[in-house]
């Protein structure tokens, strides 16, 4: 009798363990971007220039704090990888990169320029992301980016990455 009870308990525990192992879903969070500042400079004390090399695995955001009327100029190009997304937003979407023509589907470079306005607020978010494939997995890309903005503004780069 004791032997039967032990066998039943072992069988139930084995079923419970195997059942949990087959039904549990494990998710992995994508690794954040790795940012390397290539160059930083001041131009006539009025402008700041930052050049960055970004190893992008999913999405990365930069935050620019600007005053009303400040102008920002910049560009990026993909060094490795084949397609990324880029947009600039304040209180609403200001700019989104699009393929250069109808024949090209991938975005591998773009130039952007915008002026800060009181209607858009003081914080501007620049977002880079890799495109997801059919199964929803994001690829990897290495992007070179240069941003020129007034020295009175500030650019926040995420820390604690990779």
- CATH level-1 class: Mainly Beta
Number of domains: 1
What is the helix tally?
Answer: 1
Order of helices and strands: HEEEEEEEEEE
- What is the annotated CATH architecture? Sandwich
- The portion of residues assigned to helices is 10-25%
Tell me the span between the first and last alpha carbons. Answer: 58 Å
What would you report as the Rg, rounded to the nearest angstrom?
24 Å
What is the overall shape? elongated
- From the 3D structure, determine the CATH topology: Jelly Rolls
Structure characterization notes:
- With 162 residues, the protein is mainly beta.
- It has a single domain (34-156), classed as Jelly Rolls (Sandwich).
- It contains one helix and ten strands.
- The protein has one helix spanning 2-23; strands at residues 34-43, 47-56, 59-65, 71-80, 84-89, 93-96, 109-115, 123-130, 141-150, 154-156.
- Strands 1-2-9-4-7 form a five-stranded antiparallel β-sheet, with no helix packed on it. Strands 6-5-8-3-10 form a five-stranded antiparallel β-sheet, with no helix packed on it.
- The longest helix is centred in the N-terminal third of the chain and has 22 residues, at 2-23.
- It is elongated, with a radius of gyration of 24 Å.
- The relative contact order is 0.27.
- Mean pLDDT is 82; it is low at 21-30.
């Amino acid at each position: 009798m004791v032997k039967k009870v032990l066998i039943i308990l072992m069988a139930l525990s084995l079923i419970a363990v195997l059942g949990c192992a087959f039904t549990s879903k494990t998710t992995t969070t994508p690794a954040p971007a790795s940012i390397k500042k290539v160059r930083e400079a001041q131009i006539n004390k009025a402008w700041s220039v930052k050049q960055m090399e970004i190893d992008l695995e999913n999405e990365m955001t930069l935050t620019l704090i600007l005053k009303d009327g400040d102008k920002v100029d910049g560009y990026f190009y993909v060094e490795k990888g084949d397609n990324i997304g880029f947009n600039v937003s304040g209180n609403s979407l200001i700019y989104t990169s699009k393929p250069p023509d109808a024949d090209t589907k991938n975005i591998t470079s773009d130039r952007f320029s915008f002026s800060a306005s009181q209607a858009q607020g003081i914080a501007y978010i620049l977002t880079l992301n890799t495109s997801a494939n059919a199964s929803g997995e994001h690829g990897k890309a290495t992007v070179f980016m240069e941003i020129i903005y007034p020295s009175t503004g500030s650019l926040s780069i995420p820390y604690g990455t990779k």
